[in-house]
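User: Show me sequence and structure for the first protein, then do the same for the second.

Assistant: Starting with the first protein.
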Amino acid sequence: MEENPERNIVNKVVVVTGSSRGIGANIVKTLAKKGYRVILNYNKSENYAQNVQKELINVDIFKADVSKKAEAVSLINFAIEKYGKIDVLINNAGISQSKLFTDLTDEDWNNINSNLNSAFFCSREAAKNMIHNKSGLIINISSIWGITGASCEVAYSTSKAALNGFTKALAKELGPSNIR
C-alpha cells in the first residue's frame, strides 16, 4: 500500500471488519495514522468503536453484523458510496469458542460459521468493485488453529481451516484481475 508523498496522505480506502477492539482496532489505528481512509466495522462494541474513532482522523465507523449477507453488503456499499472504491478489505471479524467437542451443540456449530460467512459475504461484494477497478487486496485474518487444530476448539479450528482454503482459492480466481 503506497503513500502519496505529495500530499502526505494515502489515497487508499480500507474496510476492516470486526475492528472495534483487539487486532482489528490496532490495524485501524496503524493504517489511519499512516493516512489511509479507514472504515471501522463493529457489531456490538459501539463505545469501543467510537473511542478508536476519536483518537484518529480518516476513520468512519459502521455498525454491521457481517456474518449476515444484507449487513455485509451495506458495509461495502457504504464504503463505495462514500469513497467511490475499496482498495483493501481486511476480514478480521470472527468469534472464538472453547468447548469440548462432545459438548458442542448444533447452535454452537452454526454460530461458528460466522467466521467464514463474514469473509465470504464481504469479499464477494468488495470483489465486484475491485474487479471493476482491476486492483485490490483482500486480507483474511485466520489462526494457527486453522492449520494445526486445537483441543477444545474443534468448531473454531474448522472455521479457520475453511477460511484458509477460501483464501487460497480466492487468490487464484481473483489474481488475474490484479487482486491480491
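Switching to the second protein now.
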Amino acid sequence: MGRIERRCISLRDGARVVIRSTEVEDALPLIQHNLRVARTAEFNVTLPDEVDLDEIKLSEGIQSDIEQPGSLSIIALNDRGEIIGDLEFSASKRRRMHHHGNFGISLHADWRGRGLGREMIQTLIDWARDHEVVERIDLGVFAENTRARRLYSSMGFVEVGMREREFKLGHGAYSDDVRMSLWVKRP
C-alpha cells in the first residue's frame, strides 16, 4: 500500500509543515486546494473550470489509491492544518511497466520557492526506494518552467525526451512537455 509515516519538517524559512498520506476525509479540503492551485499556477495542466468538484468521487479515488500497491498520495499541511501541497504517484498497472510510474505535484502559491516541493518529492523518492516493485519515477514538466526543471535536475532527475506542443495554451500558443526520470534503484 502507498502509505508513509507522518513527517514534521522545517522549511528553509523556518516554517513548520506536516507531510502525510492522503486520507479519504481529505477530499473536500483537497478540492479546495486544487481550485486555489488551478487559479494561481502558471504551469498547471488543469484549468479552474476543469477541477472535479465531486467530493464522493474524489473520496473513492483516494480510497482506490490507498489500496493500489503502486500508488502514493501525500499532502502537506501548514500549522493551521490547511492543505498547502499535494503529490500523487501512480505506477503502471501493466506488469511489464509496473516498475515505473508518473507523479504530479501542486503547491499553494504562498508556499512555492520555500523548499516544500523538494521535501515532498524527497518523500516520494524515499518511499519508492523502499517499495518492492517501483524502480523509476517519471514526470512531465512545461518546457518554460525552468524553476521546476532546475529543482528536478538537482534531485537527480534527467531529461529523457520531449513531447512537442503537448500543451495548448491558447490560439496558436503551445508548450512542450519535457519528460524527466529518476532511477531509484537499478536491476
